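FORM 12-B: Structure-to-Sequence Request
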């Protein structure tokens, strides 16, 4: 594991954007695995700025997102498909037919999960997977459990995750109760994994996930075993890490 210490959210975002843009410059047809949530927004904004300056070109990039709520269509403002267009895709020269997100409107979970895993495989796998870290150690929507789920699957969201995601919805009752998410194997097979973590609220889980035992009770802990994992975190999130 490689650790990049950043001063604050802005610096963390810039450091992560640097790694992503280097990936795209070196391999213009990279397959990027992308995440939603508040942690990667700053990196997306930085990449948009560099695109506008002509420093990075997304024309040949393909993307696969980690997850999507079940029951929300791509036009729903709370869907991750909408988030990605709004925060990133609509502001760069990516070919939107090359951006992929699980289809939350497909209620046939088996068919949708199989389709998504086949798609990732058909793209040749993920070159760089960007991740955030859930307050309970989840990655994607892989929640604490007794085992590491392998491929894309349907999950019932835990109370902690529903609570954490409530801030994006009008009320807690509006937060969907289930989602599709890539599995741990999909994530671990990415050639490179970059995680962005910011804020004191994540300090305890950072310590537990990356300096404690590898356990499915803290899904992110498995990244300790990835051959090319970079944690980009700010000082507040690294409060309990002395390394
Ligand atoms: C988002 C995702 C989630 C988030 C995590 C952290 O696609 O898969 O695992 O990365 O919940 O969310 P934020 O960044 O909002 O703290």
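FORM 12-B RESPONSE
SEQUENCE OUT:
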């Amino acid at each position: 594991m490689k650790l990049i210490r950043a001063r604050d959210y802005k610096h963390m975002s810039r450091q992560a954007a640097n790694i992503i843009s280097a990936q795209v410059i070196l391999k213009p047809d990279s397959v990027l695995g992308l995440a939603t949530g508040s942690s990667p927004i700053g990196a997306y904004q930085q990449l948009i700025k560099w695109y506008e300056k002509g420093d990075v070109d997304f024309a040949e990039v393909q993307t696969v997102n980690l997850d999507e709520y079940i029951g929300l269509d791509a036009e729903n403002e709370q869907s991750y498909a909408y988030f990605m267009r709004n925060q990133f895709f609509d502001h760069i020269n990516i070919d939107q037919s090359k951006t992929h997100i699980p289809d939350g409107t497909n209620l046939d979970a088996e068919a949708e999960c199989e389709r998504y895993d086949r798609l990732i495989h058909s793209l040749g796998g993920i070159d760089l997977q960007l991740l955030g870290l859930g307050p309970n150690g989840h990655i994607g929507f892989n929640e604490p459990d007794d085992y590491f789920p392998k491929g894309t699957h349907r999950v019932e969201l835990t109370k902690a995750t529903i609570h954490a995601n409530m801030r994006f919805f009008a009320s807690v009752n509006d937060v969907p109760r289930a989602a599709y998410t890539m599995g741990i194997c999909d994530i671990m097979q990415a050639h490179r994994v970059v995680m962005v973590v910011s804020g004191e609220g994540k300090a305890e889980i950072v310590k537990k996930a990356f300096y404690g035992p590898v356990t499915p009770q803290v899904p992110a802990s498995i990244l300790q075993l990835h051959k090319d994992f970079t944690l980009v975190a700010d000082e507040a999130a690294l409060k309990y890490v002395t390394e």
